[in-house]
Amino acid sequence: MFVAFALGAVIAYFVYDFVRYVKKFPPGPFPLPVLGNILSLDPNAPHESIAKYAKTYGPVFTVWIPQPNIVITDYELIKEALIKEGDNYAGRFRGNIFTLVSKGNYGMVLSEGNEWKEQRRFALHVLRNFGFGRSLMEDKIMSSTTRLTDEITQIINDSPSKMAVTDLSWPMQEAIGNIINSMLLGYYFEKDDPRFIELTKMIAQNFENVRKPALLLVEGYFWLRHIPFTGHMGLDALMENVHRVCKFMTNEIETHKKELEDSDEPTDFVNAYLQEMARRKAAGEDMGHFSDWQLLLTMLDIWVAGMETTVTTMKWALLFMVHYPEVQRKVQAELDNVVGRDRHVTMADKSSLPYTNATIVELQRCANIIPFNVQHKVFEETTLNGLVIPAGATIIPQVHTVHEDPKLFPNPKKFDPERFLDKAHEKVINTDHVIPFSLGKRACLGESLARMELFLIFSTLLQKFEFSTSEGRPLPSLKPKFGITLTPEPYEVQVTMR
Ligand code: HEM
Q: What CA–CA distance (Å, rounded) separates 362 from 418?
């Protein structure tokens, strides 16, 4: 009797304590102990479950996956949080597994505080010097784009009908990977270089690994990592890949160190970073958060964040052109008028190509590749939309929902570049609400580079080639596959020379 009473009291206390904890956060779907709301999210499209919750609970609510995440789905509220209260919302949720991998507050994407501020400022400074928005970067992008167009031309010429039906994912991956690589490490990989193949494979595997249920459980309940016969719940496989990628990056740093000449104008990121370390050391200045380990993790972050996102957007771009041939024709007509077919498209052409620009904005809105924005963290308690946001809470500024908001984009599912053109079709308008790079202090570090890549690669491909689906074949699906990004299912396009 006593035991039953004591057990009842313990359970009652546990329930009371749990409910009290849940009440600290903005209301949302009520969570189960341990599992939170995981079971009620659509496993194939959890971002769509989030959009549905917003309809029930309003633009600020908590979802437990299984830890509490406060989701903001409204543009004006995201702006209020990330810009007006930018400093407070600039923290990051790092999680147990990443803390194990990074050994602390290192890297770019998931670091925070003064260390992150110093490193981000330095990275932006270097990237600007390389010509984010200037000619050096443009040259690097065009060099890779030309290799891509040469390769596609070759595939077409090799086909007897001069009409290639092919999956362009890998050539695109190589082209975009090489842009990042030449900026980071100063060289281009040769076609099908085994090192590039292995690196992309290991990173892709780890993207898969972190989504496996065993590792999600380890993230929530870190002691589970001690269970040995399960490969430590999948951690061993993940760490093995991490070690191999780190080894590649370490070798690169060592090679750069051997070739480092302080007086040389740096031509890649690693060089610039090592020179800054050498300069500080020589001047007896504080090294701040500059170290080989910080450099390695930043290289990794830029490599991963810069490649997957841009490749995925370009895959969607070609897919949308196949689905909307009338848009493709209008872009091509504009390019023919402004650039012609005999010279390269340049950044100087950009302002004279309103239809092409509007199409790229609409592509990014409709592709909507980030199903869950990178989690932020608030440092101090605050309020948003009249709700208390506790200090230390994890925040998801849900860009995905903004891009499908019918108040901002009437008939949001329609792919319609003209929604961003004035009546005379001479000016691009109303693009403020399209925020694929997010907003505020933690907005994408590579935004300028990515915008330049998307413009130059997309317009060069459309200037030279016609993309369609081959006769008799169904159109490839526009249904996205859920992962760290939303990607199209693998598809083949028919490509001909224009
Ligand atoms: C179409 C291409 C891209 C898209 C859609 C994209 C989108 C994003 C988004 C949504 C974030 C998170 C923002 C937030 O926390 O609120 C982010 C962060 C980041 N991106 Fe990108 N990105 C792209 C390309 C690139 C490129 C080319 C680079 C390489 C330089 C890059 C490097 C980064 C880094 C380092 C961060 C972390 C910034 C920080 O936490 O301070 N991204 N990106």
A: 9
CB 415, CB 328: distance < 8 Å: no
Q: What is the ipTM of this complex?
A: 0.99
**3-state secondary structure at position 187:** coil
Total count of domains within the chain: 1
Is 375 part of any domain? yes
The residue whose CA is least distant from atom 26 of ligand 1 is: 306
Tens of pLDDT, residue by residue over 410-419, are 999 999 999 9
Residue 262 pLDDT > 70: no
| Structural domain for 396, as ranges | 67-497
What are the pLDDT digits (tens) for 39-80?
Answer: 889 988 999 999 999 999 999 999 998 889 999 999 999 999
Domain-located, residue 33: no
pLDDT digits (tens, 9 = 90+) for 174-228: 999 999 999 999 999 999 999 999 989 888 888 777 777 777 778 878 888 888 7
How far apart CA 375 and CA 308 sit, in angstroms, is 18
* Burial group, residue 159, by CB count within 10 angstroms (0-12, 13-18, 19+): middle
The CATH number that applies at residue 337 is: 1.10.630.10
Average pLDDT over residues 328-354: 97
Residues near ligand 1 (Cβ within 6 A):
108-109, 120, 301-302, 305-306, 309-310, 313, 369-370, 373-374, 397, 436-438, 442-446, 449-450
End-to-end CA distance of the chain: 86
Q: In this predicted structure, what is the pLDDT of residue 240?
A: 87
Please indicate, yes or no, if residue 43 is contained in any of the structural domains: no
Residue 106: inside a domain, yes or no? yes
Q: How far apart are CA 313 and CA 325, in angstroms?
A: 18
